[in-house]
Amino acid sequence: MAVLETRELTAFYGDFQALFDITFTLDEGETVAVIGANGAGKSTFLKAIAGLLPRPAAAVRLDGRDIGTLPAYEIVKLGVALVPEGRRLFSSLSVEENLLVGAYGRRRGGAWSLATVYQLFPMLRERRHSPSMALSGGQQQMVAIGRALMSNPRILLCDELSLGLAPIVIRDIYAALADIKARGTSVVLVEQDLAHAMAVADRAYCFMEGRVSLTGRPQELTRDAIHAAYFGL
Amino acid sequence: MRPEANKPAALGEGRHSPRFAVATATRASIIAALAVIPAVLILIALPAFADRALLQELFYVFTMLTLAQLWNLLAGSAGLISVGQQAFVGMGAYALFAFTIIAGLDPVLSIVLAGIVAGALAVPAALIVFRLRGAYFAIGTWVVAEVCRLVLAQVKHLGGGTGTSLPPDIAGSMIGLDFVRHLFRVRGPAARDILSYWLALVLVVGTFILVYRLLRSRHGLALSAVGDSEPAAESTGVDVFRTKFLIYVVTAIVTGMVGALLFLQKARISPDAAFSLIDWTAYVIFIVVIGGIGTMEGPIIGVVIFYLLQYYLAALGSWYLILLGALAILLMLFAPSGVWGVISHYFDISLFPVRRRLVVPERAGLRKESLR
Amino acid sequence: MLGWIDTLLQGILLGGLYSLYATGLSVIFGIMRLVNLAHGDLIVLGAFLILAATAAGAPLILAFAVVVPLMFFIGYALQSALLNRALGRNILPPLLITFGLSIIVQNGLLETFSADTRRLDIGPLQSASLPLGSGLAVGLMPLICLGAAIGVIVLLNSVFYRTPLGRAFRATSDDVEIAQLMGINNRSIYALTMGIALAVCAIAGFFLGARANFDPSIGPARLLYAFEAVIIGGLGSLWGTLAGGIVVGLAQTIGAHIDPEWQILSGHVAFLIVLVIRPRGLFPRAVD
């Protein structure tokens, strides 16, 4: 049974409709990539799941239970954590405080703690007392992931992990993601970097103009099909 | 007021005929514009039939409406929420007393000069308070008003903290007073009321024309861009500072003239009355928000509601003020666009349209006719 | 010479009171970016509530101990019931709601307590002073007030910087959207913030009533002093706010020393000068 499911999910920014009837499933332990061009609605999709945007009541289900009416701060307590686009660390908090605040609303037991996050990203331990904004982009991304993990999520929503990072740093981040997956966490991965997304994903959804234009397993999707689904050519 | 459609937008031009145009006029606005002229003519002629009491009431309504329209321009259009407009009312009022009592100038001329004084105050005031953002700007303007009040309380020539009265011979020497006296065959005090009424009418009509033209000009477009998003406006080449500065100073000039006229009519001034937060800012804000901020129609409705409340309930004293405060809070919670906002939303009308609307001919015929 | 030293001392002590006025305003702005135009009137409300409790027979200390949590509760309710409904990008609704509130509180006090000037009866403390030698002395009550101002800042800073709740406050201040993703209910954080601010208002009201006369009309002036202290100190730092309060206090006592009529004006002028020379205040921290 799907752990996370959306049915005819719509989302609006004022009068502008950003998502049209998105139907989507994520199974336990699965990693699903959401790909698509800029403005296709990928980040909106994650925000709608996480509760940051208003959405139809029954459109989002966790273990079959409606979570479409819950506010964001309740959804995270049920085990859905978002790593936001652009990291968005708390600028007046130190690295360690950013991680600690990630555990603020924690209601779930699990493997993650300061110690295990530092194990995953050893270089954060050295910089634990630094202001979060003093870190490099890659390190900031690690803090953002660690901060989300501190809530012990069963589902991790990742928005553009590779954005603005050097290839070598991206490799480290994806190596860490593999570790996270290995612990049984389900992952929804929004990514512009096709190669990385397809390498780790079990399945992929391609979005175009707020609609799902293609779904399938990475190995079944041809370059041409993806290209067409991306740009509608 | 020229309620015509503006030139077709450049985007639609080319070898093909324009596919859309940008318009500000609506049928309702054309009717409104045609109705305004006879209405103003009737108001000009009103002293011939109306009694003194009515003229005095209308004088108060016109001055409050002028202040409201000016505050509306600041807050509703330029996003400059000031709670310190009493600085310019008081400064204009004191300037009038100084020009007439100390310099011996004519009161009517002094009103114009008082506006210039208020504008001159606005220049340094803007340079200081524009350093503050948003809500802090609001309190900053209040501090400026307090400084003015405290400074003028030190001016012994104008009565210091207790204030002073305008000698009767000064008010009796106004330009045009003899003309009014002969025209309507009335005595001095009645003639003064008529003249003050006309001056208030000039200010209110002049302010409407000024604001209307300003909002429909390129400055108006820049202004609404500033109101929507300052960084975005800046990035499209709008000089945010200059536009706001201009609005702030122009508003101060007219506000100062209203203050001068108000206290010419009262003939008595004190720092507490001239720089009253309640009288010249709280009431004015109330008028604007209850009518509908950001529209030209709003203050008209607001001043009518305010006048009725004042007429029937002002005797309640502080309970009246508590009621106004509670009304303002409820309004902000449940109908932040005010009475006119609700009306224009339900009936989709605009009498003094300052927005640019996109008119797409193919679809315009299909669209519900929005002009009633 | 001695007169001047005394003036400076009095100015610093007055600054303690202004810092208490300003701390609540500073906290509210720091966390919610909200400016409460009723702040001054709420300080006066605190003073009147303590007065009413003592008039009902409660000892002063008990009155204080009851009114501080009561004001916390009023602040919590005010934010939950009114101000949380007006959150958003547009600053006009919250600003005008607090403006309306200011008028309601002021006139409500006027109706309830009349326009008479009042003072809290603090017994022998009223005139107690600490001799400093060579004819100088400082009043004990003003000294306690400065101590309380420092105590409040130490307490608030230790909450903000040393507790999980404090981290939640700062995270909400930094990025309210992301804070919600951490399980932080921003609305309840805001309600707590207003509660804390009004509790500090009650403390400030106590010292206002203990140090000087008060009546229902003096709220707006307290708001302006508080605001000036916050801006002079620089947004985002409570110690900066204390320094700002002392600057305003010093400016006022120095002005009054030259001419008693210049007291209030000098404080305002000092504020405008700081705004011209250092628009971000003396100790800027937060990026607005």
Question: Secondary-structure map with pairings?
Answer:
The complex is a heterotrimer of chains A (233), B (372) and C (288).
Chain A (H helix, E strand, L loop, with lengths): L1 E12 L2 E12 L3 E6 L5 H9 L9 E3 L2 E2 L5 H4 L4 E4 L11 H8 L11 H7 L1 H5 L10 H13 L5 E5 L7 H16 L3 E5 L3 H7 L2 E6 L2 E6 L6 H9 L2
Parallel strand pairs in A: 3-8, 3-9, 6-7, 7-8
Antiparallel strand pairs in A: 1-2, 1-4, 4-5, 9-10
Chain B lengths: L20 E3 L3 H19 L6 H27 L7 H17 L4 H23 L4 H19 L11 E2 L2 H4 L5 H8 L3 H29 L1 H11 L1 H6 L4 H27 L1 E2 L1 H4 L2 H15 L5 H17 L4 H17 L3 H10 L9 E3 L1 H4 L8
Antiparallel strand pairs in B: 1-4, 2-3
Helix pairs in contact in B: 2-8, 2-11, 2-13, 2-14, 3-4, 3-5, 3-11, 4-11, 7-8, 8-9, 8-11, 13-14, 13-16, 14-16
Chain C lengths: L1 H31 L6 H17 L4 H22 L10 H22 L15 E5 L2 E4 H23 L1 H11 L1 H6 L4 H26 L7 H15 L4 H21 L4 H15 L11
Antiparallel strand pairs in C: 1-2
Please characterize this protein's 3D structure.
The complex is a heterotrimer of chains A (233), B (372) and C (288). Chain A is of the alpha/beta class and 233 residues long. Chain A has a single domain, classed as P-loop containing nucleotide triphosphate hydrolases (Rossmann fold), CATH 3.40.50.300. In chain A, 33% of the residues lie in helices and 26% in strands. The mean pLDDT of chain A is 92. Chain B contains 17 helices and four strands. Chain B has a two-stranded antiparallel ribbon with strand order 1-4. In chain B, strands 2-3 form a two-stranded antiparallel sheet. Chain C is mainly alpha-helical. Chain C has one domain (11-110, 138-277). In chain C, 73% of the residues lie in helices and 3% in strands. Chain C is built from eleven helices and two strands, in the order H-H-H-H-E-E-H-H-H-H-H-H-H. Chain C has a two-stranded antiparallel ribbon. In chain C, a hairpin with a 2-residue loop joins strand 1 (129-133) and strand 2 (136-139). Chain C starts with a helix and ends in an 11-residue tail after the last helix. The interface between B and C is large, with 42 and 45 residues.
